[in-house]
Amino acid sequence: MPRLRKAISGVDTKILIKDAAKLLPQSSRRMFLRGAGSLGALAMLTGCDIVDGQTAENALRVISRFNDRVQALLFSETTLAPEYPESAITRPFPFNAYYSEDEAPDIDGDTYQLEIGGLADNKKPWTLPELNQLPEVSQITRHVCVEGWSAIG
Amino acid sequence: MLDMTIEAARHSPVLPDTATASAASVPLIHPLWVRITHWINAAAMFMMIGSGWQIYDASPLFRFLYFPHQFALGEWLAGALLWHFAAMWLLVINGLVYVTLGFATGRFRRKLLPIRPRAVIDDFLAALRGRLSHADLTVYNAVQRLLYVGVLLAGVVIVLSGLSIWKPVQFKYLTALFGGYDTARYVHFFAMASIVAFLTIHVSLALIVPKSLRAMIFGR
Question: What is the pTM of this model?
Fold first, then answer.
């Protein structure tokens, strides 16, 4: 459970990068730090070669891991996202994916499998009937997207 | 005061030596802590604004406003977020050191107060006519005082609104203070816009009066 909570408690940029990197063309993957070269002032300040994208990238990753710990410390189990009445739901709820709504893939429910990855101990894939047997909980809350917009749903 | 000076001059047999005279006529304008925190802040601002523009582009608040890629830092959303959440520490820790020392040493009170509306109008009109004196850089004119206090307040607002959109659940009271998550984003944006407006004036004037730039580097 703590693992799960950590992943959803804040903006986990590492996971985001990993997910998005798969969808990006190869050349873009390591290039998200381009433009760092213009940081002449910072290079003088720290004495490290920030023009080398790899140095900056490593430094940012170290700080990102530190931020993960700060976010875990900030998280309180008694301060949870507020729930809203059904009337507060944002309609239409924004559709946000790497494809447009009409490009959403058709899924064959009979062969569909939900694959489990990452830190989960049990990585056995789930079929749709198995998923449907799980207990259901519904919650109306504000979704705050990493892009900046928010919507209640 | 004048009498005392004449009196002192009459009783001193020799003129003060040139070294003492030049040191006295060129007083220290900015102590070292001001210069260090100023330039660390400049670097932090550069990173925060550049990465902030990139984050803004992922979901623009205004249809007509999009920040060109070459001015943004971080290449894309996730990279920009890494920069933003790293540089925030530099900005906030450096800012806290600056504000603490500003109050503790009395520099804020001495340099930034009082601000009288009449003096602001007079100095502003004098500036437009090109008649504002820059002879003594140790004393800020009324327009400078107003702008420096203004940008300090914008700094407080941008940090607090930033915290409220970074952790809208854990800092829910702060977020509520800014009118909720969506409104806090607008507050954060307009605080950035006023800081950028300040920077435009600040940097232009520093270049027009180069000795002010020299003073921020060497202290005198």
Answer: 0.77
